[in-house]
Write a structure and sequence with these properties.
Layout (H helix, E strand, L loop, with lengths): L1 H23 L5 H23 L3 H16 L4 H15 L3 H14 L4 H13 L3 H14 L4 H13 L3 H14 L4 H17 L2
């Protein structure tokens, strides 16, 4: 019942706010069109910095800034549902988290982080097929999503597809060269695959 109430509240908020803004300020509709370009420009710069950075700690800070950009949906209701989903995940209430995330991807299907978060919940529930489907959608929306690529690599490794896992980790490193876990996985998988080839 609480989830239904939250969903209805989110619909109410998302339905009322744009109409009110449009009534009070006729120029407001131009702002949403400009905002994604600004966010995109910020992300492009951050990704460029991330690729060039050779200090691990500095790269982690840049990656954190990228995550901050990804988390901003542009909607207070979506952000709230994302927060609730995270709390549910922290408490291992995965079904509750999925309820919120199903609403997020329905209300904002172009929000890559909603799909990525839902992929994470499916992964934690060992629903690898559903996780892969959401990872694919995340990567369609944001091909540089190193978090989604890392998830893909983990699923490939867990399901015995070492070569595919290696390729996914290599894609991560092409975007985020200083990611220590990706470096370690590439080294480990390369050794394992070389050993299997002997």
């Amino acid at each position: 019942m609480r989830i239904l109430f939250a969903f209805l509240t989110a619909l109410l908020v998302s339905g009322v706010l744009p109409a009110t803004a449009a009534d009070d300020q006729p120029a407001a509709p131009a702002t949403p069109d400009a905002a994604p370009m600004t966010k995109q420009a910020r992300l492009d710069k951050l990704f460029s910095d991330l690729k060039r950075e050779r200090n691990e700690k500095a790269a982690e800070r840049i990656a954190g800034n990228i995550w901050s950009e990804w988390f901003q949906s542009g909607s207070a209701s979506i952000d709230l549902m994302m927060l609730w989903s995270q709390k549910a995940m922290d408490n291992q209430k995965f079904d509750v988290a999925l309820d919120f995330l199903d609403q997020v991807v329905t209300l904002r299907p172009t929000y890559a982080e909603g799909w990525n978060r839902r992929a994470t919940v499916h992964f934690m529930m060992k629903n690898y097929g559903k996780s892969m489907s959401d990872i694919e959608r995340t990567l369609q929306l944001e091909p540089r999503h190193f978090g989604a690529l890392s998830g893909l690599a983990q699923i490939m490794a867990l399901t015995g597809h070492k070569q595919s896992a290696l390729e996914a980790w290599q894609k991560v490193l092409a975007i985020y060269p200083m990611m220590r876990s990706a470096q370690d996985q590439v080294a480990t998988l390369s050794e394992e695959l070389a050993g299997e080839g002997i």
